[in-house]
Design brief:
The protein has a domain of 234 residues. Helix 2 packs across helix 3 and helix 7 runs antiparallel to helix 8. The radius of gyration is 23 Å and the shape is globular. The chain has 459 residues and is mainly α. Helix content is 64%, strand content 2%.
């Protein structure tokens, strides 16, 4: 496909390079989690300890998976400590390779024209391109998802086209091995990368039942071994360094012995549905004395079911703002508020709010990494920024509608991609913090489907 359309792919690649160059020049961002990953990488490289600096000492931790720090270590070793310019340029190259994987997947689903359209969508996608400009694992995670899904598609199509005794099944083993390595990379970058294994495993189980072929079960076992075996060194390290069995990073990414405010987290899940509430409230609260004050005016009315709850909540935040530390007593009080609200409205808590958070993650303009106002709906404040945010939101909706348009066609193995999107979305509904970046790993599957949805007919 590429050899027959060299000029097409060359021009789009150059345009994609220019787009990412724009983000690197104007929207480079180094804060938050980037500081954590950088500290882990420096201590790993200089001290030989996978840990963070605390009061001048390096303390072993497991708060982040080691995949992205290992990537930073490789860049630092080649180009110098804290050379984040080299990091984001390396990410640019990786991000430009991902559209080729997406195009290959869309071509396999439907046609060469679908692959070309998917390539254009992926190359010019601002939602993935802007993450090349910040030292975070998203760019690599998107690549890992595209890699794993492409080779899973290849393997399934090879096995489904011929009888079980055909030699093509043996050739598919190589694709399953590569898919497993893509999953392993994804898990080493972020724990939720394991959703790839779950979704592909469920699809193989379904094929084994429908087609009555046990071979799909065996390749599922092979995929699981290849995906999970690389976690053994990390698990062993955690046992030796931290004296705990932890094959992944902790759910709340807490430090060893750090207090987790479960009551407060449960209370936020009774009302948070949008990213701006995460920025203004959720991220400001800390149980370790390094939080920020919370303006109760930023808490919407849906956080209260009565005047009594409002008064109790405001008193708790008044106490918190004095010390900027959420102590266990305050955490228990927030937990009691949460229990009251959950008992009074269980349907709202377990169904309506999770779906609202999921909708916010999928439909928000995705401006969190850009120099644009998060409250983009306030047109009178910054009309130009609001217009840019609205345009990005429409582009996001366009991708979703294009992918949904693929449902009108019978696409071999497309259920695998939809199952991955569904499984990851189901996981995201359990989170208290709806951050749009958590849906980025779904974009390879979404854009593969969008290419087929926009293509006119099979070649």
């Amino acid at each position: 496909m590429v050899s027959r359309n060299r000029l097409y792919f060359l021009v789009l690649t150059l345009l994609g390079f220019a787009l990412r160059g724009y983000f690197l020049h104007w929207h480079f961002l180094f804060e938050g989690d980037s500081l954590v990953y950088g500290d882990l990488a420096k201590n790993w490289l200089l001290q030989g300890i996978y840990g963070v600096t605390d009061s001048g000492q390096v303390m072993p931790v497991d708060i982040r998976m080691p995949g992205y720090p290992a990537f930073l270590v490789a860049i630092f070793r080649l180009f110098g400590i804290e050379h984040y310019g080299a990091v984001v340029r390396a990410q640019l190259g990786i991000d430009l390779s991902t559209p080729f994987l997406i195009a290959a997947g869309s071509r396999r689903l439907w046609s060469e024209s679908a692959g070309k359209i998917a390539f254009a969508l992926a190359t010019l996608c601002p939602f993935t391109a802007n993450y090349t400009a910040t030292p975070l694992p998203e760019t690599l995670a998107i690549f890992g998802a595209a890699f794993a899904l492409l080779f899973a598609l290849r393997a399934v199509q090879k096995m489904s086209k011929v009888p079980s005794w055909d030699v093509a099944h043996s050739f598919a083993i190589g694709d399953w091995l590569l898919s497993g390595l893509g999953i392993a990379l994804s898990v080493y970058l972020r724990p939720d990368g394991g959703v790839l294994l779950v979704s592909i495993g469920l699809y193989l189980l379904w094929l084994a039942i429908v087609q009555r072929e046990t071979e799909f079960l065996w390749v599922g076992v092979l995929l699981g071994v290849v995906s999970l075996l690389p976690l053994f060194p990390w698990t062993l390290r955690n046992w030796r360094a931290l004296h705990q069995i932890e094959p992944l990073a902790p759910f709340y990414a807490q430090m060893p012995g750090e207090y987790v405010p479960l009551g407060f987290n449960r209370w936020t899940k009774t009302w948070i549905v949008d990213f701006i509430s995460v920025m203004n409230v959720y991220w400001n609260v800390s149980a370790e004395g390094n939080g920020e004050a919370v303006d109760v005016a930023n808490i919407p009315s849906r956080a209260y079911d009565s005047a009594d709850q409002r008064q109790r909540t405001e008193r708790l935040f008044a106490q918190y703002n004095q010390a900027l530390t959420l102590n266990p007593e305050m955490d228990r009080a927030f937990g009691e508020l949460a229990d009251e609200r959950i008992r009074a409205h269980p349907l709202r808590h377990y169904v309506m709010l999770p779906l609202a958070r999921l909708a916010d993650m999928w439909l928000r303009p995705r401006t969190e990494m850009l120099n644009l106002q998060l409250d983009w709906w306030n047109w009178e404040n910054v009309p130009q920024e609001s217009l840019a945010s609205a345009a990005l939101a429409l582009l996001d909706i366009f991708y979703l509608l294009a992918a949904l348009a693929s449902l009108r066609r019978k696409l071999p193995a497309s259920a695998l991609l939809w199952l991955f999107i569904f499984c990851r979305s189901a996981l995201l509904t359990t989170l208290p913090n709806p951050e749009p970046r958590y849906t980025l790993e779904c974009l390879p599957a979404l854009l593969m489907l969008a290419g087929t949805g926009l293509a006119r007919k099979a070649d």
